[in-house]
């Protein structure tokens, strides 16, 4: 349960970071972008306008994808920094027991603490040399034992602490509860966040992918041979086209778990861009309530009736006098036409130019 709690806490902190960092960075980049691309004095797109929303969407997608790539790269970087027993001894993954022991004897002759102290004297701090030699000895003991080698390749260096294990079955029963901590913690976290209304988009595919990854991990852990996808596809690709060292099964599973969880959080950030829009009449959450539409319609009808009543009151003095009514309508029509023409920008501009020419051509002393 301690492993489950640790995984849940790590995933929770990862989700918290993903919650505010992309939005924060998007705001900064958009402000910098407008400061560079828009000249001084020109109007910048205002929040809520279509152009502003379009720019923010593109920047946000770029930031989320970049943060996703960085998170996966960071996980792989720290995993490579930690190294493994094969890299420590400098032997290939298919090295046999004879090669492993021969390599250890050569390294031990160079890095034995007694030899270090004899070369550099007693003033030399041999603490680091002692730790390095112990690591070499542990790597040699682990890889020389077929059972421990099987357990190390699938569960990582933690198996060194499992002193009570001596068979493949023992290591398997000791390692499965530890490996299941990620899935238990992640499922609990996903259920809690889904209940609270978060990460709902793509929920079906999220659970399906987690289940598929869980089945793949069980398959890798319960086989005494390295899975073909690792030996025939992944490792040959990385060793041929990059300088990345080959993956061990536990390293591949660690990176896959980290990548899957991070990918789901990234997709939840982008869900608003990919989720189909909901119909206003079909959605009760955030859509327009039909009762509100009815109330608005009733208010509009009431306003029309009140306006008609006020207009009839204003026309009451002219009731029965058709000539006066016609004259009133004509004057009203004339006033509307004249007012509309005068307020037109082009008409006002033409009138202004005409008045300007008249003032220029007027004789001296004439009043404009």
Note the topology.
Blueprint: H1 2-37, H2 50-82, H3 85-89, H4 97-111, H5 113-120, H6 127-144, H7 146-155, H8 168-195, H9 203-221, H10 228-241, H11 249-274, H12 290-314, H13 322-343, H14 345-361
Please characterize this protein's 3D structure.
This protein has 14 helices and no strands. The chain is elongated and about 120 Å long. Helix content is 75%, strand content 0%. It is mostly helical and 368 residues long. It folds into 3 domains: 192 residues, no CATH class; 60 residues, Orthogonal Bundle (Helix Hairpins); 69 residues, no CATH class.
Q: Tell me the helix content.
A: over 70%
Distance between the termini: 95 Å
**What is the approximate shape?**
elongated
The share of residues in extended strands comes to: under 5%
| Average pLDDT score | 77
Structural class: mainly alpha
The number of distinct helices, counting runs of at least 4 residues, comes to 14
Key phrases:
mainly alpha, elongated, DnaJ_domain, about 0% strand, misfolded protein binding, 3 domains, disordered N terminus, about 75% helix, about 375 residues
């Amino acid at each position: 349960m301690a492993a489950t709690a640790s995984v849940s806490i790590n995933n929770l902190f990862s989700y918290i970071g993903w919650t505010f960092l992309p939005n924060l960075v998007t705001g900064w980049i958009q402000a910098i972008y407008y400061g560079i691309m828009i000249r001084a004095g020109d109007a910048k797109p205002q929040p809520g306008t279509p152009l502003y929303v379009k720019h923010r969407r593109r920047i946000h997608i770029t930031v989320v994808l970049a943060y996703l790539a960085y998170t996966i790269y960071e996980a792989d970087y720290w995993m490579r920094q930690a190294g493994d027993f094969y890299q420590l001894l400098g032997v290939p993954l298919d090295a046999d027991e004879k090669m492993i022991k021969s390599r250890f004897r050569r390294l031990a002759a160079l890095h034995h603490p007694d030899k270090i102290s004899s070369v550099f004297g007693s003033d030399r701090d041999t603490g680091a040399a002692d730790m390095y030699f112990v690591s070499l000895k542990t790597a040699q003991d682990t890889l020389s034992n077929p059972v421990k080698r099987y357990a190390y390749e699938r569960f990582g260096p933690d198996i060194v602490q499992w002193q009570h294990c001596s068979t493949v079955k023992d290591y398997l029963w000791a390692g499965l509860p530890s490996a299941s901590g990620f899935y238990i913690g992640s499922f609990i976290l996903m259920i809690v966040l889904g209940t609270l209304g978060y990460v709902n988009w793509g929920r079906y595919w999220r659970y399906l992918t987690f289940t598929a990854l869980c089945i793949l991990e069980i398959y890798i852990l319960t086989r005494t041979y390295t899975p073909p996808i690792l030996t025939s596809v992944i490792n040959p690709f990385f060793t041929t086209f990059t300088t990345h060292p080959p993956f061990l099964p536990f390293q591949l599973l660690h990176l896959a778990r980290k990548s899957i969880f991070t990918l789901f959080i990234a997709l939840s950030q982008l869900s608003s861009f990919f989720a189909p829009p909901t119909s206003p009449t079909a959605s009760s959450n955030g859509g327009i309530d039909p009762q509100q539409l009815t109330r608005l319609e009733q208010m509009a009808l009431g306003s029309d009736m009140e306006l008609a009543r006020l207009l009839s009151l204003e026309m009451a003095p002219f009731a029965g006098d058709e000539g006066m009514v016609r004259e009133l309508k004509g004057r009203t029509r004339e006033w509307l036409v004249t007012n509309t023409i005068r307020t037109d920008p082009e008409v006002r501009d033409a009138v202004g130019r005409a008045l300007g020419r008249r003032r220029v051509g007027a004789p001296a002393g004439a009043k404009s």
